[in-house]
Write a structure and sequence with these properties.
The complex is a heterodimer of chains A (301) and B (152). Chain A folds into two domains: 31-127, Rossmann fold, CATH 3.40.50; 130-283, 3-Layer(aba) Sandwich (Rossmann fold). In chain A, 36% of the residues lie in helices and 15% in strands. Chain A has nine helices and nine strands. Chain A has helices spanning 13-28, 50-61, 83-93, 106-113, 129-143, 161-170, 189-198, 231-237, 279-297; strands spanning 39-44, 65-69, 96-101, 118-123, 150-154, 176-180, 202-205, 217-220, 256-258. In chain A, the strands form two sheets. Chain A has a five-stranded parallel sheet with strand order 7-6-5-8-9, with helices on one face. Chain B is of the alpha+beta class and 152 residues long. In chain B, a hairpin with a 5-residue loop joins β8 (134-139) and β9 (145-147). Chain B is globular and about 50 Å long. Chain B starts with a helix and ends with a helix. Classes of the chains: A alpha/beta (301), B alpha+beta (152). Chains A and B meet through α4 of A and loops of B.
Amino acid sequence: MNKSLISIQDFTKEEILHVLETAKEFEKNRTQHILDGKVIACIFFEPSTRTRLSFETAVNRLGAKVIGFSDASNTSVSKGETLKDTIKMVSNYVDMIIMRHPLEGSSRYASEVSSVPVVNAGDGANQHPSQTLLDMYSIMQTQGRLDGLNINMVGDLKYGRTTHSLLQAMSLFNPEFVFTAPDELKMPVEYKDFLDTKGIKYTETDSLEEHLDDCDILYMTRVQQERFTDPMEYEKVKDVYRLKSSMLKTVKPNMKILHPLPRVSEIDQDVDDSPHAYYFKQAENGLYVRMAIISCLLGYR
Amino acid sequence: MESINKELKVSALENGTVLDHIPAENVYKALDILNLRGISNQITIGINLNSKLYGKKGIIKIADRFFEDDELNKLALIAPHATVNIIRNFQVVEKKKLVLPASIEGIAKCMNPKCITNHQPVKTKFRVISENGEISLLCHYCEKRSDIRSIF
């Protein structure tokens, strides 16, 4: 492929499937030093634990070395260096840049000034494509297919970038959606328009119970305090849904619960032991999918 | 007879471009989009002129200036029904209609306060989307869509 991954829509259906197939191979054997001698920069201008650690682990397990920073305050960025200059400089040193930045569109811009492939590890509320790919991998591994599934997205569908990107990517696989959200956090019109133009069916509800029993994937999300400008609005909706194991008695046997993590109160601890809980394994899948993304983009798979 | 002569003195162009049927309220924006502020050419501007078709219209006449189609087509964002007359030796030698460009660079600001283009020296880039007569711009960087009326 030898290109950047900025937005999930940069990948064709074939490229998505290629990355997912490659991830299967890394799940079987998770130490493969195919990138021996390479150096990859992980530059995080904004805090992250899961994403940064899994990307850095992926680089290490592929045999490459990591350089970078996890906090821009100790770098020249704090002296006022532009993103362009930082990227120009780093791309001269390394074979790939993995970056997270609080400003939206920053990764796209970085990919235009960089001489090496850029992987977007989150640009504000915009895109987080490796999360989308690991969500798809988790769906494929639990359901045995991606086609024709019923996906129920729950929680913050207004600000949650993971649901927006997953919706766009899964629309390639003939799905049916349920959007479970309170009025304040409903799926934005532009995404519903997108589904309408593709002829994909969706229903909306504000009741978590209503469509628990007919979905294959229950995609739970956290109501993210940091995306709200009005604290009152956040207080109104922060505890709107709470999934408990007692609610899972009549769900489909193949139904799996996904969550991009971290969770707060939307999934009760007692759900963790249910055979339907998959979110910790989902986070583990992030490692294999990120190994696949890196090796595919560098042309090694 | 005298009054007609006076009017001709102001409005007749020997050579240049006449942009007609601009919505009256968008004349100043049109000057900005075409980068006409501060140039030394003679420019005649009419605002709130009566128009049979559009009620009130605006008109801009620029002497000794001819535009590339790409430049003019940017005007379609705010004046989709504008007409362009090319004048040579007092004669209209060509009439053009505007075509909405597929993308624009460097002429609008993204509405998203968290967009990289509003924080760093990055030239803006948008894809132009026209749906049901409404024009909106999709930011190449932050992927947010803005209504054209909120941008200009």
